[in-house]
Amino acid sequence: MAKIDLIDPKWVELVFEKKNKAYGAYQLRKGTSGRNIKSIIILVVCAAIVGGGLAWKVIEDKRAEEQRAYMEALELSKLQEQAKKEKKEQQEIKPKVEQPKKEIPEVRESQKFTAPVIKKDELVKEENQVKQMDKLDEKVAVSNVDQEGTKDRTVEAVRNDIAVAPPPPEKKEEVKQEVTNKVYTIAEQMPSFKGNVNQWLSQNLTYPAAAAENGIQGKVVVKFVVDEHGNVSDVQVVRSVDPSLDREAVSTVKRMPKWNPGMQNGQPVKVWYTLPVTFKLQQ
What we know:
Layout: H1 10-15, H2 24-30, H3 32-91, E1 104-105, E2 110-112, E3 141-143, E4 158-159, H4 172-181, E5 183-184, H5 197-204, H6 209-213, E6 218-226, E7 232-239, H7 243-254, E8 262-264, E9 267-279
Parallel strand pairs: 2-3, 5-9
Antiparallel strand pairs: 1-4, 6-7, 6-9, 8-9
């Protein structure tokens, strides 16, 4: 028997050749080819619609992921720029304040006087003769050397060419207090979590039921302060996904254990820290 094309209606004529075509089976078989063609067309159209929808969803997901990555890179760039600006401000040298010159009294004029020594007259030279006390100038101070200076005992002459000592350094307590109160964006040593922060988040995050039912997922970016004792405070949402996811991210971060604090100039300080919290539904 030759190969028969079931789509071609001629096979029906071959089957019912020399038979009663008025019987209902002939009419049913005669419409089979048309029904087969319609079924194939419907299947092809459905497959095209489903495939196009899946392809569109994949493209949209990829586009959304690229957008999120761009926003995160932009936020990180802003934080780095702000940190560079703060560091530059810290390194600026404060202008020196010229201290007024201290006035000190000038040296008093003095005249030499030594105790007399008894010698023979012929052994005493004229330049070695000692002045008698009654011949000394009353306005000049008596000393063991002759020295020029002021004779006035009531008015002190002053000199302005004396170097002034630099002001004493600030007390360590004041410097430490200033460092403690400042919140840094970037520190010499940034805060660090004691363990794996992503693992801790995955174990302590609770996926909001409303968000799960509606298929909402994404990455909530939060920032917070790690103080000099390692405590987490002032938790804020930098990039939002959904109100329910935002609330859960903030609540979970607030429950975090103590971190290793950031360090600046060898001292623990308060530092801002940015952390992404990812919500992803299980497939």
